[in-house]
From TrEMBL:
GO terms for cellular component: membrane. PROSITE patterns: DHHC (PS50216). It is a multi-pass membrane protein. Coiled coil: none annotated. InterPro entries: Palmitoyltrfase_DHHC (IPR001594), PFA4/ZDH16/20/ERF2-like (IPR039859). This is Palmitoyltransferase. It is an enzyme of class 2 (transferase). It comes from the Eukaryota. Residues 166-291 form the Palmitoyltransferase DHHC domain. The DHHC domain is required for palmitoyltransferase activity. It catalyses: L-cysteinyl-[protein] + hexadecanoyl-CoA = S-hexadecanoyl-L-cysteinyl-[protein] + CoA. The keyword Hydrolase does not apply. Keywords: Acyltransferase, Membrane, Transferase, Transmembrane, Transmembrane helix.
Length: 334
């Protein structure tokens, strides 16, 4: 009965059937010390609520888009992260609106205005796509509760090899994995949990996060340049035929855009530099903080381990999923 009840609760999908059975078979007996045994259900339900898997295939199938990846889309149910992610989209939309209606479309618009507008819109679309992929990609979560006798036996360890078990999510902790208290899961090659993308940055989504910081940095600098040059142009023309709005309104919108461009240009520029340094040195943010010493790959191999193999234009595309080398697999021995 317990299985059927929980299956109903989790929308009755095949994935959840597998996950629920896995959790039930791997749950260790609990000593109740005379208290009601019904209490054992509570912690399991609380833990499973931090991350949900959404099924977008039902929405996209009528449009002719059949992508198996859309059947299982990772989403972190963290209210702070969701607010930050929506705020990020609103900031991008504000910049797009000002660029279009204040800077590009006015009485004396020329070819260079349209060109600048198109480049800005292309980069902001790539930033938005990178953000969505960084947010909805499983960062490399280790299956929950797999640290059972059968699970450890299936690794085929040799004599003397040891495995770590996470005491918080009862999973076998691979080398370089860390437990995230927001996702409530162990994440392979975890760098940090970023509220701006409402997800952990880990083995599977670091490429999208790096691209997100890169494209946001590019559009911030571009917006800064366009806003300042447009303001100078308006002043030199004595505010005649340079904007479809009144001079005070134009000034307010441009000042906000300059402020936004400066703030996020500096922030994402530093973030991009930190991320690229971490990628090149093959060391995650957590490893840098803990000063963990380990064998490191060469700069080029570690770039390929994040952006995919081999080098191509796809490194810059948030739509292409990176292909990893066989040597990038995670091992368990310590
Ligand atoms: Zn864990
Ligand atoms: Zn996390």
């Amino acid at each position: 009965m317990g299985i059927w009840k929980s299956l109903k609760w989790k929308k009755n999908t095949l994935f959840f059937l597998h996950r629920e059975l896995e959790e039930i078979t791997t749950t260790r007996p609990i000593a109740y010390k005379g208290k009601s045994p019904h209490k054992k259900k509570k912690p399991e339900r609380q833990q499973s609520e931090s991350v949900v898997y959404l099924d977008f295939s039902r929405i996209f199938r009528p449009l002719g888009i059949v992508n198996p990846g859309l059947r299982r889309v990772w989403f972190v149910k963290d209210i702070c992260g969701i607010v930050c992610a929506v705020f990020t989209w609103l900031l991008i939309l504000y910049a797009e609106w000002v660029i279009l209606f204040v800077i590009v479309l006015h009485e004396s618009s020329g070819f260079s205005d349209y060109l600048h507008g198109s480049v800005f819109y292309l980069c902001s679309f790539l930033a938005f796509a990178s953000h969505i992929r960084a947010m909805l990609t499983d960062p490399g979560a280790v299956p929950k509760g797999n640290a059972t006798t059968e699970g450890i036996r299936s690794l085929g360890l040799k004599k003397g090899e040891v495995v770590f078990k996470c005491s918080k999510c009862s999973s076998i902790k691979p080398d370089r994995a860390h437990h995230c208290s927001v996702c409530q899961r162990c994440i392979r090659k975890m760098d940090h949990h970023c509220p701006w993308v409402n997800n952990c940055v880990g083995e599977n989504n670091q490429k999208y996060f790096v691209l997100f910081t890169l494209y946001i940095c590019i559009i911030s600098i571009h917006a800064l340049y366009l806003a300042i040059s447009h303001f100078i142009m308006c002043v030199s023309r004595d505010w005649k035929s340079c904007s479809g709005m009144s001079p005070p309104l134009t000034t307010i919108f441009l000042i906000f855009l300059i402020f936004e461009g400066m703030l996020f240009g500096i922030f994402t520029g530093i973030m991009f530099g930190t991320q690229m340094s971490a990628v090149c040195t093959d060391e995650t943010g957590i490893e840098q903080l803990k000063k963990e010493s380990r064998e490191r790959r060469s700069r080029w191999l570690s770039m390929k381990a994040v952006f995919g193999h081999p080098f191509s234009i796809h490194w810059f595309s948030p739509f292409s999923t990176p292909k990893f080398l066989a040597t990038d697999k995670i091992y368990y021995s310590v």
